Amino acid sequence: MKLDNTTENKEIASRYRQLLKVSKWSREKGDITIIRKAFVMAVDAHSSMRRKSGEPYIYHPIAVARIAAEEMGLGTTSIVCALLHDVVEDTDITLEDIEREFNPKIANIIDGLTKIAGVYDTNSPQAENFRKMLLTMADDVRVILIKLCDRLHNMRTLEHMSDRGQLKIAAETSYIYAPLAHRLGLYTIKTELEDLSLKYTQPALYQELKHKLNATKEQRNRYIRSFIKPIKLELDELGVDYEIKGRPKSIHSIYNKMVSKNLEFEDVYDLFAIRIILDSDPEDEKMDCWNVYSITTSIFKPNPERMRDWISISKSNGYESLHATVMGPKGQWVEVQIRSSRMDAIAEKGYAAHWKYKDESKTLTKANNLDNWLTQIREILEDQDGTALEFLDEFKMNLYAKEVFAFTPKGLLRKLPKGSTTLDFAFDIHTEVGAKCLGAKVNGKLVPLSYEIKNGDQIEILTSAKQKPNKDWLNFVKTSKAKTKIKQSLKDEKRVVAGLGKESLARKMRNTGFDYSVDNINKLVIYFKAVDELELTFQIGKGIIDKEKIKLQEILVQTAKVHKPGSEREESTSLKKKTSSELLLGDATINMDYTLAQCCNPIPGDKVMGFITVGGDIKVHNTRCKNAQNLMSKYGYRIIKAQWAGEVSIEEDFEAGLEIRGIDSLGLVSKVTDIVSKQLKVNMKSISFESLDGTFIGKLKLQVSHKEHLEQLMDVLKGIDQYIKVSRIDLDNVPKLTS
Ligand code: MN
After folding, report:
1. What residues are paired with 322 via a beta bridge?
2. Pair 255, 337 in one domain
């Protein structure tokens, strides 16, 4: 049956009056004028449109405005924007009209909502859309709150859509909107979105669970009554007004439990939670909650593992509540949630209910958790280079990550996702602190950057001006902020090095008569198997590609010749073994065969001595060598004088061992290897690192040409930080493990 126009108009007017009624508490005097104006504009603009259900379109904006007011506790601006949220997208009204008729703030929010709508109508990947949506939202959180109201109403009326449309919207809802609602502390809305989504993605299962929940309702209520009874008796004596609710858990959460724990419906015991809401004054509420906790757990034994205190430290989405899981009658665990009516309002409607947007001149001045979160979002969004999907993963991880809390040395509380490390903590304090982080003291004890924070840790970050973020840090940071900042810094650094490389390459090309042209650069890129110009110039700047050895003539002129990339570099390394170093044994330069002792591996420049073995061979030891000293003391007559000849081939390689000790900081291993193999181009035969209570010991086996060479390397390594000690060790002290 179709309603005639007059009946419809009456219905529209009635829905509008209901909206005014539910928004009464959040409106100031005079606000009604602007709401009426928005309503009239929306009615006019949508007058010829109908929803898929056949109803007048205006029912939808009114319903969205009502959700905003009634279920989120939003104020006048949001109600106005909700009423107008589809007009720019779907009708002839423009943003300029809105700005003229209302104000720039409202126009700005409508603009955000319109952009989101635009984004979703295209066929670009969902993740990219989501990122765009958050970009828009970062301007004003009301954009996202109203978008959530819009989505909730669309989900509530989804039955009129085609099957395919239903699935798409339902999937999107569970993928993006429910997590978002969760993060914003809108638990009721999150739960409803999840349930509605399940209803369309798994209809049969949803109906079955719904049926089973209904069928067990009476039995459950009986149990709840028996559970509540003794608690009520005691609460009545406390003299605080209270309300106890036994609430069934959502179908979605039951479904989740069945899937994740592989249970049948009948085996899911916590189908409901008991909620005790106290009507306390704000100054008494915590005390009252703890009193009720104490009463409850003296009647029923609590499970200490499942006690949750979010009243001393609230969740970062604003949630405050005290949770206990106790052993109820018939040996059944029951979750009890204890909170004040103020806390309950936050839990039901989200923090939004407590943000005051009435004064347009004041934005969120109080540094609350949501602000911090929005700041984080902005920071993630700054990372324009990451893929959208990567971004979404990190974002979602941050949404769902449980929290740990830790203290600064001054006792300030900071919350981080569970699994965060001291390096995350450093970045959380400040980007610069993170970038310069060397290590940390947790509860007075030295820990590495990768230390996983535990609740209540007090963390002092140690920094050094010399410190720089490096790639390995990405392996153990958890927060998006730290990841983003590290990646940014690495990119910046790479650009700087590449800039230097480009400069010197350009100079070399100029001097040899080649243009620094796209064509020529491409040839070099291909020849050196680099990904692009940036990578090529970076490798030159870093010395990975030796500028001096680039044979421009060959590469650029003889383009017809097929190059075997890398062959040039291989050639230069194979040169190394040609000459042999001279060792003078005995009094003369008699050519005697000798080998270098494996225990100490002397290198040119070292003081050495020869030792005649039982088999008649000569072994050359470093005079520092403990074995050699032992041999000398016992078999002095077998010693033969030895010394290096003046000229030593630079290309000859000798093995030497180094030990590095210092303060443990992760990323250090790669720093050491970087210096050794990339900066100084020393071959590493093996490397081992171990850490012990904040200190580390690293042992390296290297190929060097001369003592001086080794000493240069040691000097550079000592420059890593002030705590580092570098010393030469005998090779048999280096583990055989090869890298
Ligand atoms: Mn809409």
Report:
1. 309, 338
2. yes
Query: What number is the average pLDDT over the span 193-209?
Result: 91
Q: Give the Å distance between the CA of 62 and the centre of ligand 1.
A: 10
Split at pLDDT 50, 70, 90, the class of 485 is: confident
Domain annotation covers residue 390? no
Give 157 Cα–ligand 1 centroid separation in angstroms.
12
Same domain, 204 and 222: no
Known catalytic residue: 70? no
Same domain? 148 vs 21: yes
Residue 21 lies in a domain: yes
204 and 336 share one domain:
no
What is the spatial distance between Cα 388 and Cα 125, in angstroms, rounded to a whole number?
9
Rounded Cα–Cα distance for residues 105 and 95 (Å): 11
Closest CA to 689 of 658, 719, 643: 658
Identify the active-site residue in 89, 279, 309, 674. Answer: 89
Which residues lie across from 407 on neighbouring strands?
413, 458
**What would the pLDDT profile of 42-59 be if each residue is shown by its tens digit?**
999 998 888 888 889 999
Structure confidence at residue 344 (pLDDT): 87
Whether residue 534 sits in one domain with residue 501: yes
Q: From CA 424, how far away is CA 394, in angstroms rounded?
A: 14
Question: How far is the centre of ligand 1, averaged over its atoms, from the C-alpha of 61 (Å)?
Answer: 6
Strand partners, 666: none
Residue 337's alpha-carbon distances to 309, 330, 664, in angstroms, are 10, 20, 44
Residue 543 structural domain: 487-557
CA 515 – ligand 1 centroid, Å: 58
How remote is the CA of residue 63 from the centroid of ligand 1, in Å? 10
Q: Are 58 and 5 in contact (CB under 8 A)?
A: no
Answer yes or no: 652 catalytic. Answer: no
Using the 3D structure, point to which of 297, 324, 357 is the last residue of a domain: 357
Return the CATH number at 316.
3.30.460.10
For residues 536-540, average pLDDT: 89
Q: CA angle at residue 520 from 516 to 521, to 5 degrees?
A: 75
316 CA distance to ligand 1 middle (Å): 29
**How far apart are the CA of 198 and the centre of ligand 1, in A?**
21
Last residue of a domain, one of 325, 357, 389: 357
Highest mean pLDDT among 173-177, 418-422, 513-517, 642-646: 418-422
Q: Catalytic: which of 8, 90, 279, 582?
A: 90
Cα–ligand 1 centroid distance for 180 (angstroms): 18
Residues 709, 659, single domain; the answer is yes
Is the pLDDT at 210 greater than 90? The verdict is yes
204 and 78 together in one domain? yes
- The pair of structure tokens assigned to 321 is 């509540």
Tokens of 149: 């109201």
Quick one: tokens of 532? 């692009």
Please tell me whether residues 203 and 216 are part of one structural domain.
no
686: which DSSP letter?
A: E
Q: Is residue 368 part of a domain?
A: no
Residue 470 lies in a domain: no
Number of domains in the chain: 5
Q: Which two tokens mark 33?
A: 């004028």
The CA distances from residue 315 to 349, 370, 415, in Å, are 15, 11, 9
Q: Kindly report the average pLDDT of the chain as a whole number.
A: 79
